[in-house]
Design goal:
The chain is an alpha+beta fold. Helices cover 37% and strands 20% of the residues. It binds histidyl-adenosine monophosphate.
Length: 432
């Protein structure tokens, strides 16, 4: 036999991309249905933005010192020499759309969610891709810590609904434009004294983006920053009150969290609250979702002053974890309820008619379209994990009957064809 895998090897997927095949796609469908339902319960409406944006949208917002902008953007020029990017994240695009579509006139808070594809030129590894998907939610028009709490509760609600139990919520406040600059200066002074002990990236970050040094994952840097000034101790009165109010709300909502003074996050638009939900199952790159407050972004992108907060969840990571959960996921939708095995092509017309009737009644039905015979048909039914094998031979046809084998119970009986639907409906409870 020719080895077609070798022949087809010259066409491979691009590095850092994935194919999502039906076995996995059903899990995506399931997760997306939970995400959509949760969004609606919390009052979020869906927003869809274009796959590419003017580069400025991200350079301005995510920040020209962030890795996403400096190293990871898929930047290109179109035929009119416009600088465009494949979106590396959702927030900047949503803010652009919020301002451009005058959503600030809507009653506050305005709540928007998205399920979208993003691109970052990153080093691919487990759970980290160059093309990936996120579910994200953004809440505009409230600076109250109650909105931070409600948004964080949405994250936890979703993850619990999906069956996760062992998750860690990391929380920090990175201050505002009043308290961050003096803290930044103190931190820079500290880091300058440690420059020899930092990784190359961090030694370059000291002047431009010193806060990022705090959450560098390199163990050398983690050791070097022991004793660094702590943001929480430098928060102004308003930021301090905001942070402590948020913690009170989370306590009341019985959401446990871990205060992590080293959590900074890699996007420049954040201030005050930042948070991540981690899962140990994914190894070192373990953030399942991340978010924070960005109270000045709307104004800086041309809208009226509008506080806002949001988060985004990596869907590849979510699905990877879902596949590890002990409870069976809705893979059943890939399995037929009924598989029709036929003796010969003579029964094909009847098989097609029966299958059509069953599908109209919501039974997933497949047929041995190649008429390989009852024995082979049964084997295929078992391999496909069908609930029932329906057998049609010349004998059944002459008696106007069908033989049904319950593949789980291993029982078999012949019934009049016209009783097929009532028979299945009666057993509906056992059919997933
Ligand atoms: P982010 O932390 O860059 O935040 O991404 C959020 C989540 O997307 C991460 O926690 C991770 O699960 C997933 N993710 C990021 N990069 C990749 C990748 N290369 N491959 C697979 N998954 C990835 C943001 O994007 C912000 N826009 C979140 C936000 C919304 N903040 C406020 N509103």
């Amino acid at each position: 036999m020719r080895d077609f895998t070798i022949l087809s090897m010259k066409y491979t997927k691009s590095i850092g991309t994935r194919d999502i095949l039906p076995e996995e796609a059903v899990i995506w469908e399931y997760a997306l249905s939970v995400l959509r339902e949760a969004s609606s319960l919390y009052g979020y409406g869906e927003i869809r933005t274009p796959a590419f944006e003017n580069a400025e949208v991200f350079i301005h917002s995510v920040g020209d010192t962030s890795d996403i902008v400096t190293k990871e953007m898929y930047l290109f020029q179109d035929k009119s020499e416009r600088q465009l990017v494949l979106k590396p994240e959702g927030t900047a695009s949503i803010v652009r759309a919020y301002v451009e579509n005058h959503y600030h006139v809507k009653p506050k808070p305005v709540k928007l969610y998205y399920i979208d594809t993003f691109h970052r030129y990153e080093r691919p590894q487990k759970g980290r891709y160059r093309e990936f998907h996120q579910y994200g939610a953004e809440l505009f028009g409230s600076q109250e810590p109650s909105s931070d709490a409600e948004l964080i509760e949405l994250c936890i609600f979703i993850l619990k609904k999906l069956g996760f139990q062992h998750l860690v919520l990391d929380l920090n406040s990175i201050g505002c434009k009043i308290c961050r600059p003096p803290f930044r200066e103190k931190l820079i002074a500290f880091l300058r004294s440690k420059v020899q002990q930092l990784c190359k990236d961090c030694s370059e970050r000291i002047e431009k983006n010193p806060l990022r040094v705090l959450d560098c994952k390199n163990p050398i840097c983690q050791a070097a920053i022991v004793g660094a000034p702590c943001m929480e101790e430098h928060l102004c009165e308003d930021c301090k009150a905001h942070y402590s109010e948020l913690q009170k709300y989370l306590d009341h909502l019985q959401i446990s969290y871990r205060k992590n003074p080293l959590l900074v996050r890699g996007l420049d638009y954040y201030q005050r609250t930042v948070f991540e939900v981690l899962s140990s199952d994914l190894g070192s790159q373990s953030a399942l979702l991340g978010g924070g407050r960005y109270d000045e972004l709307v104004e800086s992108m041309g809208g009226p002053a509008t506080p806002a907060i949001g988060f985004a969840m990596g869907l590849e990571r979510l699905i990877m974890l879902l596949q590890q959960l002990p409870d069976p996921l809705p893979l059943q939708s890939l399995h037929p309820h009924c598989f029709i095995a036929i003796e010969s092509s003579q029964q094909l017309t009847l098989a097609l008619q029966i299958a059509s009737l069953l599908r109209q009644n919501r039974y997933r039905t497949e047929i041995d379209l190649e008429a390989k015979g009852i024995k082979k048909g049964l084997e295929i039914a078992i391999k496909k994990n069908a609930s029932f094998a329906l057998m049609l031979g010349s004998q059944e046809i002459s008696l106007d009957q069908v033989t049904i084998k319950d593949l789980a119970q291993r029982t078999q009986e012949s019934i009049p064809l016209k009783e097929l639907l009532p028979y299945l409906n009666q057993r509906g409870g056992t059919i997933e």
